[in-house]
């Protein structure tokens, strides 16, 4: 596609991170031995979006890491869809994630919750031709999106790359509202360890090109998991290990390290990914 026919995207702050995630994922997906197949992501980066990805973010050196994280979320969503083929997945803050097209069973209903400007961007760059995808504009914290949720045939909540940008009390309030309203459902989410959170707050997570990661004030460690478990109607919080990848580091060292709880919670071999089950009848 000629450069002048691409869609120019101009974002900053937390919304810009969706472009970093997309760039890393597409870079991995181009490989013949990719750990994640994602033709939609490749198409967006190569042919649809007008944005200086490499000039802004540098080389996509974390492509496999990002793809393995996405694949772990994919696996949990596929498991849910296998058990609830007509269920609903609610993706909070999915940015330009192309997950729906990777896991679609041609029956599942998908609800995205995004800031209004990102909701508009998704609808423009990732149009739905199935009639089963809807994006609601608004913050995940305001609760209005809950009016659009239909848990009658099974419900899975997903918050990939989102909660770490909130304050701790905001995360707890959101979890409490979901646990109260969506009994028997599950939320899958990720976080960052305290050392990583502190570096982002101090502005020390940056690339050679000058891109600085936005602050991520909410961190996850054993104590924070215990606090989550104490929220009313939270029945379980459990770790989800990233799948085995390619090469010595991702294929052997990280999977072995992730078997040790203390190493896993340090986040040196991948950011924490978790599943939280809410009390109630039925389990998605």
Automatic annotation (TrEMBL):
**Coiled-coil zones:** none
Q: Which of UniProt's keywords are assigned here?
A: Methyltransferase, Transferase
Pfam families the record matches? LCM
What SUPFAM superfamilies is this protein classified in? Answer: S-adenosyl-L-methionine-dependent methyltransferases
Record-linked InterPro entries: Ppm1/Ppm2/Tcmp, SAM-dependent_MTases_sf
Q: Does the keyword Methyltransferase apply?
A: yes
Q: Name one GO molecular function term.
A: methyltransferase activity
**Keyword Transcription regulation: yes or no?**
no
Biological process (GO) annotations held by this record are:
methylation
Q: Under what name is this protein listed?
A: Class I SAM-dependent methyltransferase
Query: Which species is this record about?
Result: Actinomadura darangshiensis
